[in-house]
Amino acid sequence: MRGTEVQPPAGTQAIGRALAVLKLLAAEGTELGLSAIACELNLSSGTTHRIVRALSAEGLVAHNPRTDSYYLGTGTILLGQAAQRGFGLDKALPVLEQINAETQESVNLAVREGSESVVMLRVQSTLPLRFEQHTGARFPLYTTASGKAILAFSSDADAYVSGLPPRLTQLTERTLTDPVKLSAQLDKIRRRGYSIDEEENVAGVRCVGAPILDADGRAQAAVVIQVPTVRMPTKRIRELGERVVTAAKEIAQFVPIDRIMSR
């Protein structure tokens, strides 16, 4: 997004630019001045001012007069809450909270967006040693327990793997870089019912994930437990794997999976 002006379809330029401003503020997670917004999106100062003023009028952007900067407004909170209800995530959250209470570990619900896994819900561990993460974080499908759990039960799994380069980008020393080995791992996940991230996405963190399946046995979302490696012996991997499978089945009863589409 940096340095490149958004080019939406003809006739929707203003909408595309407004969405780009909202996405930028969400990604930065902090206040930005008009000049910073204009620079990031390659927009003129006048255009940026008009967009921000229109978004502010709807409560989607708020202004801090002390710093003369802008941040996401309360209107985005209301939209987010409505979206969570529409996707059934408000009902999924108690399931994640229950797992967290039982295990004291961090729990995520992630969805697939194209070739990435995106964290939609998170219940953070309160233990001193934990992996910090935030909702909206996104990672390649092949590096995460959530992504591999979703892939294993996706209709385009073979096409995804065959479209990968011969050597995948390595995020840690243990990241799978061979598509053939990834394919074999997906087969194992299908047989076992849950996926394992052996420090493949973040060094020092092991994860287990289970797909949230629709009526046809396909997945676009997954439940994941993240644990520092020092608290995750092999025996616990199996125990937590069985737990996320149960949780995923519970969530599938009230989350409309057909609404969570891969993009």
TrEMBL record:
Q: Which residues form the IclR-ED domain?
A: 75-257
Keywords assigned by UniProt, alphabetized: DNA-binding, Transcription, Transcription regulation
Give an example GO molecular function: DNA binding
Biological process (GO) annotations held by this record are: negative regulation of DNA-templated transcription
Database matches in Gene3D superfamilies: 3.30.450.40, Winged helix-like DNA-binding domain superfamily/Winged helix DNA-binding domain (1.10.10.10)
Asked whether the keyword Lipoprotein is assigned, the reply is: no
Q: Which residues form a coiled coil?
A: none
Mind telling me what this protein is named? IclR family transcriptional regulator
The organism encoding this protein is Saccharopolyspora karakumensis
Organism lineage reads as: Bacteria, Bacillati, Actinomycetota, Actinomycetes, Pseudonocardiales
